Amino acid sequence: MNILVIGCGAIGSFYAERLANARATVTVTARGAHLDALKRNGLTVIHDGETRHQDVIACSHPELQSTSKADDFDVIVIALKATQTQTLLNELGSWLAAGKTPVLSVQNGVDNEPLLASVVGQARVWGGLSVRSGGEISQPGVATTTGIYKVIIGPWPASNIIPSNLTALASLWQSQHVPLEVSEDIRKELWKKLIVNCGVNPLSAVTRQKTYELTHQPELAQKVYGAMQETGRAAAYDGVEITPAEVGDMFNLIKSFNSIKTSMLIDLEKGRELELDAILGSVIARCRLLGKPAQITESLWTELTSKPLPDSLDGLFNRE
User: What is the mean pLDDT of the chain?
Assistant: First the structure.
């Protein structure tokens, strides 16, 4: 397969390296010193102490547009931060829309897929999520990662018809021992991950604590669980039912995880933009529209932004 991975951060690097090792032709996009290093030296992934290296084709977005078409690829994987999805579409929207290749989002939040669908059409969009995955670009061309990196993918928003090219992509990752699940209801899976993210990501940034501390200190654990409950209620706006028992099961699952530094805490430490709209804003807006309380989530927003929530819901999530 010929696969394009847009966004070669920790998540994109891990999955791109596995695909390249499975003998797929892999192109990645990046910028700055990271792009220069990828072009010069290839991609290195240090995962839980094991160093792996692959040669990949690396390019910027302008280079991608000038040298290829979307339909040159069998699958396009988007592994950018959710804060960058609209910028991506501003830069590559017409390039993506001109093709028929499926586009797989492996990003935080539940609003990337509808945003992509508004440009390329729902039939071309697959949803995806990475489970128990952490890491960062430790130096240009090198990703240092940790966790099981399970991936869940499926046609968005839900379908019991799984395309053959999705199955082929799944087989490549599975050949590299990447834990993988193909879902017929990927929108619910995305919401389940958002429940976990909303529980631990913002609070970790506020407290500078890793996930184990958040779920094992009683006062912090109560906030984690409360934010998860609020997110579960917000899912109803999208027609997704998350039962209280399911929220409880996910909380207990987080407690059993190895302690990791969340992506939001890493972004905070590195001075990068936080995924506040994708993780907090989408929950707050939906709870408002449903008339449901979201006091914990709103308080985390205020603590992280040092400003009150906007009166308008515009921009908090994509309602297409």
Answer: 94
